[in-house]
Amino acid sequence: MCTTAEVAPPPPVAKTEAAESEKTARRKRILSGVQPTGALHMGNYLGAIRQWVANQDEYDNYFCVVDLHAITAPHVPKQLTLDTYRTAAIYLAAGLDPARSKIFVQSHVREHAELAWMLNCVTPMGWLERMIQFKEKAAKGGADSASVGLFDYPVLMAADILLYQADLVPVGEDQRQHLELTRDIARRFNDQYGKKRRVFREPQALITKSNARVMSLQDGTSKMSKSAENDMSRINLLDSPDEIRRKIKKCKTDAIKGVGYDDERPEANNLLGIYEAMSGQTREQVEAEICSLEGWGAFKPRLTEATIAHLEPLQKRYTEIVTETAYLTKVLADGQEAADEVASKTLASAKRALGVTLPGDTKLPKLL
Predict the structure, then answer these.
(1) Residue of 31, 17, 131, 13 lying closest to 72 (CA atoms)
(2) Alpha helices in the chain (DSSP H)
(3) Neighbour tally for 224: CB within 10 Å
(4) How many CA atoms lie within 13 A of 313 on its CB side?
(5) What is the pLDDT averaged over residues 7-15?
(6) Is 207 helix (H, G, I), strand (E, B) or coil?
(7) Residues 349, 346: Cα–Cα separation, whole Å
(8) What digits encode the pLDDT tens for the residues 99-150?
């Protein structure tokens, strides 16, 4: 009697080589953005944008112009429109590459506002009442001037991040509280509605030296800000060489003899930190260069010329971009399309978890 040899079945394969390779190759995703309110300045550049540019090849990048956040405070509509496109143009002029980063306008992706409402419905009021930045901004203008949108600003920020399942968010120390709230909201939503399948990834902070604060030119203890009334307090990225010279010449220093780093000298540390970034030198190299300088009068021209030289290529590229706007509009349209593809999937998952119906659903529950 003939018998056939028994062939042992192949061992089960938990993961194919291709799947394992894909997992290994997946880059962590980043989401970040800047408000288009007023001119972008050195603090925005050194604290955020330059870091985005440097890390483009390391991460899966989504960078938006957060115009919905800008309307939480009084503003001039026409100016907001201009500033939105100017901010996007500065992103590109600074070195963001549409081939490596998705660049888009927040309001162009409708899922931001829709997810923010859903997250509002799971976020306790008490969590928002503890947010420090709302208290500070409300105190400046008075309680009656603070809008519901300003109070709810952190939930919209959470929606921005969670929509894209971001792994990392570049933040400074002053923004840590908002990121922690985002993580709390994601965890609460997942616990309440994502028991079968997690809906949101909990993001982590990406903190590097670039996240350090750049301080005001008029007060080394205050952050450089677009909202500061005195334009002399900041170097705007599009300031002319003459404006840069004037601002640095009149910037605040101290009466202590000599030029040097000192934790007790905030203005000194701020100016020297900016010089490091503008000249491309390390702290040690700057210390060696300035050790023989007797005063700030000898240092300020060096800072001025380094700043003008550093910003010149950015300003030249910006002029080229805004002169021919077809490129800018195409970049934003492509970015919106790529962002919407990811955001729509996340929003659909959130809706299903909440029990909110989706248009076009063909599988309905038994209604009788």
Answers:
(1) 131
(2) 17-25, 42-44, 50-54, 67-70, 77-94, 111-120, 125-129, 132-141, 148-163, 176-193, 241-249, 266-279, 283-290, 296-323, 325-354
(3) 23
(4) 6
(5) 43
(6) coil
(7) 5
(8) 999 999 999 999 999 999 999 999 999 999 888 777 777 666 666 678 899 8
Distance separating alpha carbons of residues 281 and 276, to the nearest angstrom: 5
What's the pLDDT tens digit per position in 89-107? 999 999 999 999 999 999 9
Q: Find residue 215's DSSP bridge partners.
A: 223
> Is 338 exposed, middle or buried, given 0-12, 13-18 or 19+ CB atoms closer than 10 A?
middle
Query: Any idea which residue has 């008075």 for tokens?
Result: 142
DSSP structure class, residue 46: I
Number of Cβ within a 10 Å radius of residue 128: 16
Cα 159 → chain centroid = 14
**pLDDT tens across 277-304, in order?**
999 999 999 999 998 898 999 999 999 9
pLDDT tens column, 38-81? 789 999 999 999 999 999 999 999 999 999 999 998 899 999 99
Examine the pLDDT at 1 and tell me if it is beyond 90.
Answer: no
Q: What is the side-by-side strand order in the sheet with 168-170?
A: 101-105, 60-65, 29-34, 168-170, 204-206
Phi-psi region of 7 (alpha: psi -120 to 50; beta: other; left: phi over 0): beta
Q: How far is CA 39 from the centre of its chain?
A: 16
Task: Give the span between the Cα atoms of 190 and 194, in whole angstroms.
Answer: 4
Please enumerate in sequence order all residues whose Cβ is within 8 A of that of 123, keeping only pairs 6 or more positions apart, or say none.
Answer: 155, 158, 185, 188
Residues 6+ apart with CB under 8 A from 2: none
The Cα 157–Cα 166 span in angstroms is: 12
pTM exceeds 0.70, yes or no: yes
Cβ within 8 Å of residue 60, ≥6 positions away: 26, 27, 28, 29, 30
Rounded CA-CA distance 302/244 in Å is 12
Catalytic residues: 137, 223, 226
